[in-house]
Design a protein that fits this description.
Two copies of one chain form a homodimer. The first copy, chain A, folds into two domains: 2-128, translation initiation factor eif-2b, domain 1 (Four Helix Bundle (Hemerythrin (Met), subunit A), Up-down Bundle); 139-373, Translation initiation factor eif-2b, domain 2 (Rossmann fold), CATH 3.40.50.10470. In chain A, helix 2 (55-72) packs antiparallel against helix 3 (76-87) and helix 2 (55-72) packs parallel to helix 4 (95-108). Chain A contains twelve helices and 19 strands. In chain A, strands 8-7-6-9-12-18-19 form a seven-stranded mixed beta sheet, sandwiched between helices. A four-stranded mixed beta sheet of chain A has the order 13-10-11-17, with helices on one face. In chain A, strands 3-4-5 form a three-stranded antiparallel beta sheet, covered by helices on one side. Chain A is 39% helix and 19% strand. The first copy, chain A, has helices at 40-48, 55-72, 76-87, 95-108, 112-150, 182-189, 206-218, 230-235, 261-270, 291-294, 303-306, 366-373, and strands spanning 2-3, 6-7, 11-13, 20-23, 34-37, 161-165, 194-199, 222-225, 241-244, 248-250, 255-258, 275-278, 284-285, 307-312, 327-331, 338-339, 344-347, 354-357, 360-362. Chain A is of the alpha/beta class and 376 residues long. Chains A and B meet through helix 7, strand 8, helix 8, helix 9 and strand 14 of A and helix 7, strand 8, helix 8, helix 9 and strand 14 of B.
């Protein structure tokens, strides 16, 4: 996607092939800065501290992490250790395991001397396929939006098509296009009048910081709201569709996504607003048939609840691309009040209107998923 | 309630009778500071900027505002102007109108020379009655909690009784005791093992700042969570009851409360968790029979969404009572991304398990309310 007219991806390999670059997402939207990662430890740290985040991008980052590890030590033992180190960085997303297994299984069959180069090729392929999958999700979602728009009651047609999204499932969460935001970018580029309600998505505010940044830089009309406001907007007929991403989708169609997704799904259901989940096949966990009971939920640091980061309002920095913004944290709670920070929740399939995948649109059910992926 | 062992109210009259003091709630939890208000304009400004907030406290503050106005000019014209000025400060809460009308209607029948003193007496009475009503709500709610606790399945009895609350409907929102928190204080003082999940309540974070402050100072076990987390906790059986306050209750039992209340009510309903609303009679608007359609929702400044206030994490101030904390705001959104900030939403009566009032517990319906207030 574009940043002020220039096309970007979120991750790439340096020309000499011995380091990767990523956009440091912990500094957005106030500062745009690339970060070089040149070994396994740096990649693992970048995933753990959410310099890179978003299920698909975590998977691609992990694949490149294996490449960097193999450049230093291509042995089976080093590979196994690198695999475990990377897998432990984030327990909920399933793309990470998928990407790591894909690279590991490929290189294990090769002589040590060929492993690093093969890992590079495979990681590149995962990245390129992620872009293609996201673009296909965008095309399928666009058709859905067009159908919904055409079916809107006449009194609503004077306002833009209103989409609410939670967290960031945009191009910053993937390599390009995004999952939930791909249909929005497609619709905007196709000339549809579209407006996005952006949930700020506490505690890490990926909506207010990353989704708003993406939409602003691409020029898509949007408004940031607190996570509490979406239900009210749906009650008032201000939302035509909700679309979110997913970190893990169970075979029965339950969706594990950023904490708070479930609440928006309940509100959509209560108000007859369609609720869509956009996903590439790599987020489907065919081994799990009851998402609510079986998906482990990562609990992150309570400090993400008790504190929040932003740009000091008293700062004179402009926040323009490349500027050095005055970023600091403020404490929100009294000393001595603790926080609890579950990072994800599970939205039961019954609340999901449809899944939008790179292969098309399906019901959120085992039957629906099998209708698209029977051959896998 | 207590602050570190010393009993406080939220508002009072200075000894000389020509000014009132309030706790400046915009500085909590980082700094505890009283503010003197000595004329109508200062009271109106304090309500508008949320130095005082919470439906019952706004009502009492308004009553004292009329007292101060009448001290300067007891004429009918000045009274009418003071009434309008105060009423315009917050459009959603109904206690404000109720308290203002109560004082105005009383003094209008009196000679000008007696008006200020009569207003003082009436405002004092409103404050004292608010305390008595809140304590009664606490007693009724305590009995409800005791019944729920006794009926818990045995596997849950090893953990404390878990209550989730949204925003601040504690003693800081009233004169003392609070509405939704009154049963919690009563339960804690009665020796019940109780733990409170405190929704931070963006955008103004009254949960993280005020409710957490109250509970910490009174010594009630609690944990702050982001507004997104409550549904997940209910899915996991970690919430025995939800209890919130209300700014306006329609005669059919719809509840207008802080934005996001509706989402928690949906989650409670979906998980079979009882959802209670605590209120004094002064929040009931008998003129409105469809809360969703008829209650005006205040839209506040977008800056409350795009920015947030806290204590600078790099500050060395301790935040202890009386200290001068280094309070600042940070910007959360990119420059150029706008926000929208509806302050309240309406929870339909069908999602409310029961209303807890100073007269007892009733169904959230016209019949339920009339069963308690038929005589009014």
């Amino acid at each position: 996607m574009n940043i002020d007219g220039k096309a970007w991806r979120t991750i790439g390999v340096e020309p000499h092939g011995e380091a990767i670059w990523v956009i440091d997402q912990t500094l957005l939207p106030h500062q745009f800065q690339l970060r070089l990662l040149s070994d396994l430890a740096q990649v693992a740290e970048a995933i753990r501290t959410m310099v890179v985040r978003g299920a698909p991008l975590i998977g691609v980052s992990g694949a490149y992490g294996l490449m960097l590890a193999l450049q230093q030590d291509p042995s089976d033992a080093a590979l196994a250790q690198a695999f475990d180190t990377l897998l432990a960085t984030r327990p909920t997303a399933v793309n990470l395991r998928w990407a790591l297994e894909r690279v590991r299984d490929l290189v294990l069959a090769l002589p040590e001397a060929q492993r690093a180069a093969a890992a590079r090729q495979e990681a590149d392929a995962i990245a390129d396929q992620d872009v293609a999958m996201c673009e296909a999700i965008g095309d399928h979602g666009l058709r859905l939006f067009q159908q919904l728009e055409a079916a809107r009651p006449s009194e609503r047609r004077e306002q833009p098509f209103q989409v609410l999204t939670h967290c960031n499932a945009g191009w910053l969460a993937t390599v390009d296009w995004g999952t939930a935001l791909a249909p929005i970018y497609k619709a905007h580029r196709a000339g549809m009048a579209i407006h996005v309600w952006v949930d700020e998505t506490r505690p890490r505010n990926q909506g207010a910081s990353l989704t708003a940044f993406e939409l602003a830089r691409e020029g898509v009309p949007h408004t940031v709201i607190v996570d509490n406001a979406g239900g009210h907007l749906m009650q008032r007929g201000q939302v035509d569709a909700v679309i979110v991403g997913t970190d893990r989708t169970s075979r029965n169609g339950d969706v594990c996504n950023k904490i708070g997704t479930y609440l928006k799904a309940l509100a959509a259901h209560d108000n007859g607003v369609p609720f869509y989940v956009a996903l590439p096949a790599s987020t489907i966990d065919w081994t799990i048939s009851d998402g609510l009971a079986e998906i482990p939920i990562e609990a992150r640091s309570a400090r993400e609840v008790t504190h929040i980061q932003g740009r000091l309002a008293s700062s004179t920095a402009t926040g323009a691309i490349g500027s050095t913004a005055n970023i600091d944290s403020v404490q929100l709670t009294p000393d001595g009040s603790d926080g609890f920070n579950p990072a994800f929740d599970v939205t039961p399939a019954r609340l999901v209107t449809a899944l939008i995948t790179e292969r098309g649109v399906a019901a959120a059910s085992e039957q629906g998923l099998l209708s698209l992926y029977q051959s896998t």
